[in-house]
């Protein structure tokens, strides 16, 4: 008999999810039956009318007090069950069993055995009696669905805060005719002053374009028809223009008074490259020699640099005036010190396999130099002149005729001849292609950046000059930089 009693206890424990039929009557049921019985039998309020179905009886009055019982409505109170410790242990076991990871290999057998045990013990399958069952993977939201709560609870960047990619027009802002332009790779026929005046050499004449007003002025013309202009270079202030010619001379002009100040003779062949460093003008010629000229004194020729064996077609002083970079038709790049520090090169860079005309110093890193090779090389190389190492190299698949850094977006711009005849914008220092500017029908000979660094001007063998507005700053960023500059100016004035 004890065995049957134990089985009955186990059976009652496992039937937790079933309705309780043999337990004590709920309190609200007792009160409901009490009120219905009193209405039928017209019993007095002081008598007890609620009879418990269990073994114990609940008194209708509070012990020790002779007061009427509190009237109640049907369903007006909650049922508080009582469970023994065995029931809690079983419930804890079942909960922990549900949280265990499922063995995929034995999942089918386990589910079948659980179903069999449930039917044997309860008389039905518990899974079929569940009101709500949550399972499976959550469904993805349909395409195009917008969650309004994303603004409040998402930490990701909203579309309004995503950085926009700037638009770079593939067509030039302006196209100017340049008749009688010499289609010579080694010449430097274009320069842009700090006062927004663009100078261009057309055969034996120099023309000035006021980029602000749009006016064109003829500055000078060589006396002999067979002579031609080889190079141009503005001073830092933008008031004087140096002109190198094919008759081995350098002319210095006061632009605003349209007056030639002096003519300097020292070279024995045409002067194809010029670069200013304060009052010192450096010039490179077909002989391979580089001359330094102090324009303040009568005896202007103060030093000669010898290293190149062929024409010096590229010449650039660094922004801080510490180094002079020269490139030649002998495929060499030399880095020279200041005039006071001697006439021996600091670095000799020989990795290029073609003529090096394209040279550009990085404005925000003065020790970095970019150089570009001709048709036999086609590479852009970035150098650290302090160590003499090549930081990066890129094969452009086209002749590199000119280079310039664009500081507004920290990019590098290259002009190309054969075979692409285009302009390419590169992200620096990754040297990934940002955009291509196509339109010239012949090789691009030179390019130069405007004083505000927003526009690049290119001149090509198709006798056209094209202005590309590819680096205009974002108005918000421009306003912030203007505020910073004005603050710095106020601080400097207060210090003075």
From TrEMBL:
The keyword Cell membrane does not apply. This is Cell division cycle 20 homolog. WD repeats lie at residues 222-263, 305-336, 349-393, 437-469. PROSITE patterns: WD_REPEATS_1, WD_REPEATS_2, WD_REPEATS_REGION. GO terms for biological process: anaphase-promoting complex-dependent catabolic process; positive regulation of anaphase-promoting complex-dependent catabolic process. Residues 32-44 have a biased composition (Low complexity). Belongs to the WD repeat CDC20/Fizzy family. Residues 53-63 have a biased composition (Polar residues). Keywords: Repeat, WD repeat. GO terms for molecular function: anaphase-promoting complex binding; ubiquitin ligase activator activity. Residues 176-468 form the CDC20/Fizzy WD40 domain. One of its GO terms (cellular component) is anaphase-promoting complex. Signal peptide: none annotated. Residues 27-82 are annotated as: Disordered.
């Amino acid at each position: 008999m004890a065995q049957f009693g134990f089985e009955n206890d186990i059976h009652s424990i496992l039937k937790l999810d079933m309705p309780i039929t043999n337990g004590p009557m709920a309190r609200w049921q007792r009160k409901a039956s009490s009120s219905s019985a009193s209405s039928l039998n017209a019993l007095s309020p002081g008598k007890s009318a609620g009879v418990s179905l269990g073994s114990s009886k609940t008194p209708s009055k509070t012990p020790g007090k002779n007061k009427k019982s509190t009237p109640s409505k049907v369903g007006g109170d909650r049922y508080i069950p009582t469970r023994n410790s065995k029931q809690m242990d079983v419930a804890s076991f079942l909960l922990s069993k549900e949280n265990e990871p499922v063995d995929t290999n034995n999942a089918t057998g386990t589910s079948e055995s659980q179903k069999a045990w449930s039917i044997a013990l309860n008389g039905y399958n518990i899974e079929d009696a569940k009101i709500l069952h949550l399972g499976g993977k959550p469904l993805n939201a349909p395409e195009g669905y917008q969650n309004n709560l994303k603004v409040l609870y998402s930490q990701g960047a909203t579309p309004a805060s995503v950085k926009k990619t700037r638009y770079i027009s593939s067509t030039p802002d302006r196209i100017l005719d340049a008749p009688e332009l010499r289609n010579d790779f080694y010449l430097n026929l274009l320069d842009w002053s700090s006062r927004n005046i663009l100078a261009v050499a057309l055969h034996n004449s120099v023309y000035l374009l006021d980029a602000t007003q749009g006016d064109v002025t003829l500055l000078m013309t060589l006396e002999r028809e067979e002579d031609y202009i080889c190079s141009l270079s503005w001073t830092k202030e933008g008031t004087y223009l140096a002109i190198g010619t094919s008759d081995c001379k350098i002319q210095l002009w006061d632009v605003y008074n349209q007056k030639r100040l002096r003519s300097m003779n020292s070279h024995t062949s045409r002067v194809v490259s010029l670069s200013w460093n304060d009052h010192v003008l450096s010039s490179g010629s077909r002989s391979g020699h580089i001359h330094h000229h102090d324009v303040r004194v009568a005896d202007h020729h103060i030093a000669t640099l010898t290293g190149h064996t062929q024409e010096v077609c590229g010449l650039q002083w660094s922004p801080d005036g510490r180094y002079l970079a020269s490139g030649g038709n002998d495929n060499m790049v030399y880095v020279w010190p200041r005039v006071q520090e001697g006439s021996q090169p600091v670095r000799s860079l020989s990795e290029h396999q073609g003529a090096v005309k394209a040279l550009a110093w990085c404005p925000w890193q003065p020790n970095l130099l970019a150089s570009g090779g001709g048709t036999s090389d086609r590479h852009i190389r970035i150098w650290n002149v302090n160590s003499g190492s090549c930081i990066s190299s890129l094969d452009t698949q086209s002749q590199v005729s000119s280079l310039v850094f664009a500081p507004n977006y920290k990019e590098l711009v290259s002009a190309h001849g054969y075979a692409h005849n285009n302009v390419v914008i590169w992200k620096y220092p990754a040297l990934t292609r940002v955009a291509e500017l196509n339109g010239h029908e012949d090789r691009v000979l030179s390019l130069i950046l405007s004083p505000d660094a927003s526009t690049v001007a290119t001149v090509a063998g198709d006798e056209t000059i094209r202005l590309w507005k590819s680096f205009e700053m974002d108005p918000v960023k421009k306003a912030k930089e203007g505020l910073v500059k004005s603050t710095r100016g106020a601080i400097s004035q207060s210090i003075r």
